[in-house]
Amino acid sequence: MNGTVKEFRLVAEPVRREFAPGMVVNAWGYNGQTPGPTIEAVEGDRVRIFVKNALPEWTTVHWHGMRLPNGMDGVGGLTQPHIPVGKTGVYEFTFEESGTYMYHPHADEMVQMAMGLMGFVIVHPKDPNQYRADRDFAIMLHSWDIKPGTGTPNPATMLDFNMWTFNSRVFPGIDPMPVRLGDRVRMRFGNLSMTSHPIHLHGHHMVQTATDGGWITESAQTPMNTVNVPVGSTVTVEWVADRPGDWALHCHKAHHAMNAMAHDAPNMIGVAQGGDLQKRIANLLPEYMAMGAGGMAEMAEMQMPLPPNTLPMMTGNGPFGPIEMGGMFTVVKVRDGLAIGDYRDPGWYKHPAGTVMRLIDG
Amino acid sequence: MIAARFGVILVVTLALGGCAAPDPSGPFTDIANTASERLGGSEVRWARNGKDETAAQEAIARLLEAPLSEASAVRIALLNNQRLQAEYEEIGIAHADLVQAGLLENPSVSVDILAGNGAVSPAFSIVENVFGLLTMPARRTMASSTLDRTKYAVGAKILNTAAEVRSAYYKLVGDQQAADLFHQVVSATEAAADLAGRQVTAGNLNRRDQALQQAQYAESLVELARIEAQLAVDREGLNRLLGLYGEQIAWNLPDRLPDVAGAKPELEGLETLAIEHRLDLAGARADVQTATYALELGQQLRWLTALGLGVTIERDPGGSGAWLKGPKVEFSLPIFDLGTARITSLEAQQRKTGKLFVGLAVDVRSEVREAYLRLAAAQDAATFYRTKVLPLKQQIVAENQRLYNGMLVGVYDLLRSRQDQINSARDYIGTLKDYWIARSQMERALAGPLPIASADPPPKSP
Ligand SMILES: [Cu+2]
User: Fold this and answer.
1) What's the burial of A33, exposed, middle or buried (CB within 10 Å: 0-12/13-18/19+)?
2) Which of A89, A302, B317, B403 could form a disulfide with B409 if both were Cys (CB 3.0 to 4.6 A apart)?
3) Of A262, A271, A302, the CB nearest to B199
4) Are residues B147 and B279 in the same domain?
């Protein structure tokens, strides 16, 4: 606080971001991280935000979805001069409405967002009991094109992204989301990638309670299991955690719940490659193994050497075996008896006897 | 006066007439030893009878039992190349000429019947023997010089044949090794075509994409056939140089070329070495001496007669490199010709031999530099391939294998990168082959082994 003004300091700079153990990305972010720190304040707060530019080129910050004076909107050249390298830009305005917003550059926007410059602005209602939730998660969705064996996103890519992130992390590098049984859970999603993401929650019904345009009246809220998060939007959903267990939460575009893979590799499904042919190829390439004939599940089982700084396309292990996922995938862990504010991983769910699928012969 | 001279001539004739058939072993051994030493000890034998021939064939049979080495190929050629053996016979011919030059012609008697005034009076003449006696030292010197030059020519032929054998040998071993590698390229294209067929069966590939793989396989088979035909041709070239036929031609080769041997040579000193060692240059030097001698002799004997001493030093226009003619001695009676033109000719011939000598020396120096450049370039290329290109190609395959493991590239890309690696290995063998051929050429240019320091020990890989 400075007098009656809440002050925030952002430093836009190159950062090293681990997507998951085994892969570190040369990104750009704020205050050493991507997404940048979430700016939280209360409806009606006067805020002053210092943006220091430690990037190799000029930048600005646009306060995405917020209502503010035109000169604070952050569009380089249109509503303000750019913040040159080494200088600090000062934004000052009042957070007029509670809700979920984003911030990101509006200068060389394509490159700067592709490199990871983004963050949330969360404005809480003045009345803490209004729109109250027990647990509140904010998840920024993004896509990246990082060629296997490299570490720097290619900002020129428009469609062929290969890494899909929750808060610039990929499964199995994304923390589980522990939730107390009976909690009202809020999940805020922001999407600064170039495609929409239908986020699917297992085992629960949820309702969408807000967009970045404001709160949705209760009568207009529709129940859903999957909420589509459009490009350049935030979407807020809420649900009551009434089913204990380990519940998957993921984008339902299947490729978005995968790590890097080839999309133009020959299709080997159903192609017999074994026997003599396998041997002949192995004579030329001793490490060769025929793959893909039965599907790609073997990929998750075999631990073959990959290029450096490259995650397996599908990976992760659960209590019953390989989870075979990547990208936008994590686990919501609904447990009885968690303390308020305890976000530690409670481990794998212990299923009551007779409540797990069983195998029979044939 | 005449009677007295006749007596002297008779004595000389009888003394020489008692000699046995000329034996050219000595002159041959001289040059054989020189050539052998220049070839690192390879035996040079001249088969002059059935016994020699049998011994040579037995030696050849033994040499052909093991895979042919550079040394054994050279040995076989020296024993068995009939054109080389024919060249050895030149020594026999030149030596016989030398012996002949030491003999006086059998006295010829001419009888003239002079008729006049009703009377007939015969007159006897032995005049020619006088000239024969007077010119015998000159003829012997000339014939000896011919023998010398024949020896040098034979020596040069031996060394050149050895260089040709070495070049042909390394070309064949290198091409054979590259051909063996090409079989792996064929395996790769065959596997890709096979996979494509299986993809079609599974409904995963269209006919066009299958045909692309099949076409690559078919083309690699055509290329293999072309390579193998060329190998057979090269093999025949070596068979001819080694003089082999019939059952002898079933010889084997080692699987691979030796690596680059030794440190990179220095050019310094090589030209001088070649000038000292080249046998064709020694022959040209002998020609200069002969022509100089002929000129001096011509000048001394000018008062007596127009004694013609000539040197013919023309090469065989057929390209064999052999000397067609040697020095010659001519006589003529000083009736119309008082020898002035003859002396002018001898002077010109003397200058000519000198110019040819210098010209050849200039060529020899240039040949050494050229051989050096080829050798150094081939050695650099081979070393660069071995230390830089091949490890990179290997790394590309290894990285592709990792990408394949992650399903980040397909099997066709993986096979193609392996093919590419094999083709680079074939290119490397090509540079290694160039290196060994260049070494053979260098040794030909130097008329002897290339002085070479041993290589630095290769750096330990990390
Ligand atoms: Cu998605």
Assistant:
1) middle
2) B403
3) A271
4) no
Spell out which residues of chain A touch residue B203, defining contact as CB-CB under 8 Å.
Answer: 270
Residue B179 token pair? 């051909």
Q: Rounded to an integer, what distance in angstroms lies between the CA atom of residue B305 and that of residue B337?
A: 9
Res. B2: pLDDT tops 50: no
Domains of chain A: 5-127 (2.60.40.420), 144-256+328-335 (2.60.40.420)
Q: What is the rounded CA–CA span in Å between residue B364 and residue B358?
A: 10
Q: b vs e for B341-357, b when ≥16 Cβ sit within 10 Å of the residue's Cβ?
A: ebeebbeebbeebbebb
> Residue B84 in contact with residue B154, Cβ under 8 Å?
no
Asked, for residue B460, whether it belongs to a domain, the answer is no
Residue in the structure block whose two tokens are 């030093």:
B313
- A168-172, B265-269, B436-440: which has the minimum mean pLDDT? B265-269
Q: Is there a contact between A271 and B403 if contact means CB atoms under 8 Å apart?
A: no
Of A175, A155, A156, A151, nearest to A260 by C-alpha is A151
Q: What is the ipTM for the molecules in this complex? A: 0.87
Work out the percent of chain B whose per-residue pLDDT is above 70.
Answer: 78
pTM across the whole model: 0.81
B396 Cβ neighbours under 8 A, 6+ residues apart = B417, B420, B421
Cα(A351) to ligand 1 centroid in Å equals: 30
CATH number of residue B119's parent domain: 1.20.1600.10
Q: How many domains does chain B have?
A: 2
Q: DSSP of B181-240, one letter per residue?
A: HHHHHHHHHHHHHHHHHHHHHHT-S-HHHHHHHHHHHHHHHHHHHHHHHHHHHHHHHHHH
Retrieve residue B400's tokens.
């592709």
Indicate yes or no: CB of B202 within 8 angstroms of CB of A272.
yes
Residues in chain A: 362
User: In this structure, are strands A197-201 and A245-251 parallel, antiparallel, or unpaired?
Assistant: antiparallel
> A145: distance to nearest CA of chain B, Å?
14
Q: How do residues A157-192 score in pLDDT, each as one tens digit? A: 999 999 999 999 999 999 999 999 999 999 999 999
